[in-house]
UniProtKB/TrEMBL annotation:
PANTHER family for the chain: GEPHYRIN, MOLYBDOPTERIN BIOSYNTHESIS PROTEIN
Cofactor(s) it depends on: Mg(2+)
InterPro entries in the cross-refs: MoaB/Mog-like_dom_sf, MoaB/Mog_dom, MoCF_biosynth_CS, MoeA-like, MoeA_C_domain_IV, MoeA_C_domain_IV_sf, MoeA_linker/N, MoeA_linker/N_sf
Pathway this chain belongs to: Cofactor biosynthesis; molybdopterin biosynthesis
PROSITE patterns cross-referenced by the UniProt entry: MOCF_BIOSYNTHESIS_2
Pfam families recorded: MoCF_biosynth, MoeA_C, MoeA_N
Protein name per Swiss-Prot or TrEMBL: Molybdopterin molybdenumtransferase
Source organism, top-level taxon: Bacteria
Length: 397
């Protein structure tokens, strides 16, 4: 069986980033991947600003001094000039007047007959946000391959840029298969089940920022499946759930092999051992197992990597981990296993509580959990032993 690391390396070597680049408004850039380094076009702030409401002077200040207060400087006002030997009222975010270099907070000043008195020493530059304190002109703010966060979008906006160059969105075709599947809301019928993998995968793909260009739940009909696969080949990536094993009704495998190729790997992993990787008319194809937890885990480990590679991310398929202790003893099996866990307070520290039933068909276990813990094969772990843990929120879920 292929190890998780070997499959990740194969995907990374095989899938190349998309070449197309587009410019989008900064406000629409969150979740997009930068196509080129982003440098600051100007200093931010462009000139010294007051950090708070107070009084601005030419420093330093010596406790016990006082100066007449002449004029006011509001945020947005053009720069004024501070007369020697005077102070000026100033407000948060206002430009410092010419000749001023220090701001003292209003609560530290007593005003008497338009004369300010202070009882503390202040060095030059106190209370001032210096020019270029946030960014300097020409400074590289974000590197190529960065997936832009809300905070990073705010940073870009602060420089005055209206648009940003990003890779175009990855286009994905998502197909689920099975005569037994019903869409949520359909009347129930004996022998049927409601399709959970399709909606779950659709939500995961949207969270990854892709454009879903085709979404279908297919019957076990070879002609229909082949036609949908031909249409799906116009996408950048094809993702399916079910139909890639070796049963008589597993027709996706036959359709993919007729239109391209398929590598049916047995992954050294639980849940998620069966995984089909190949191509349809030149388009990368990933066929996920049918059990919902297996679908979820293989999406996180392999599909997300493929999407990140296509999108040009600098760190595709990032999988942040931390070591936390188990709340109960655990016996490892014949393969590495991602078990569903959640953090609880125990013995004065955070611990990982496993879901009681780790069957890969139980979506309730995923809804209960807040992350996955990796149990090595043949491990004999006692309560309190540390294991690798990945929180769902750390991977954008």
């Amino acid at each position: 069986m292929e190890s998780v690391e070997d499959v990740i390396k194969r995907l990374a070597d095989w899938i190349e980033p998309l070449a197309e680049v587009e410019r989008v408004p900064v406000l629409e850039s969150v979740g997009r991947v930068l196509a080129a380094p982003l440098a600051a076009p100007r200093d931010v702030p462009i000139a010294p600003l007051s950090l708070f409401d107070g009084y601005t002077v030419a420093g330093p200040l010596v406790a016990g001094e006082s100066l007449p207060v002449v004029g006011k400087q509001f945020a947005g006002d053009p720069p004024a000039t501070l007369a020697p030997g005077t102070a000026m009222r100033i407000f948060t975010g206002a430009l410092l007047p010419e000749g001023a270099d220090t701001v003292i907070a209003q609560e530290s000043v007593e005003l008497d007959a338009q004369r300010g008195h202070w009882q503390e020493d202040l060095s030059i530059g106190a209370g001032v946000r210096a020019a270029g304190a946030d960014t300097r002109e020409g400074q590289v703010l974000l590197e190529t391959g960065t997936r832009i966060s809300v905070a990073q979008m705010g940073l870009i906006a602060s420089t005055g840029e209206a648009t940003v160059a990003v890779r175009r969105r990855v286009r994905v075709a998502l197909l689920t298969t099975g005569d037994e599947l019903l869409a949520p809301g359909d009347p129930f019928a004996p022998g049927k089940i409601y399709d959970a993998n399709g909606p779950m995968l659709e939500a995961l793909l949207r969270a990854a920022g892709v454009e879903i260009v085709q979404r279908a739940c297919l019957p076990d009909d070879r002609e229909v499946i082949d036609a949908q696969l031909r249409e799906a080949a116009r996408a950048d990536l094809i993702v399916t759930s079910g139909g890639v094993s070796v049963g008589e009704a597993d027709l996706v495998r036959a359709g993919v092999e007729a239109l391209g190729r398929i590598d049916h790997w047995r992954i050294f992993l639980k849940p998620g051992k069966p995984l089909a990787i190949g191509e349809v008319l030149g388009t990368p194809f990933l066929g996920l197992p049918g059990n919902p937890v297996s679908t979820f885990v293989t999406y996180l480990r392999f599909v997300r990597l493929a999407i990140d590679r296509l999108a040009g991310e600098a760190e595709p398929g990032a999988w942040p981990t931390q070591w936390l202790p188990l709340a109960a003893a655990r016996q490892g099996g014949d393969r590495p296993e991602y078990i569903r866990v959640r953090r609880i307070a125990g013995e004065g520290r955070l611990m990982l509580e496993p879901y009681p039933d780790q069957n890969s068909g139980l979506l309730s276990s995923l809804a209960w959990a807040d992350g996955l813990a990796l149990i090595p094969p043949d491990a004999r772990l006692a309560a309190g032993d540390p294991v690798e843990y990945t929180a769902f929120k750390e991977i954008g879920l």
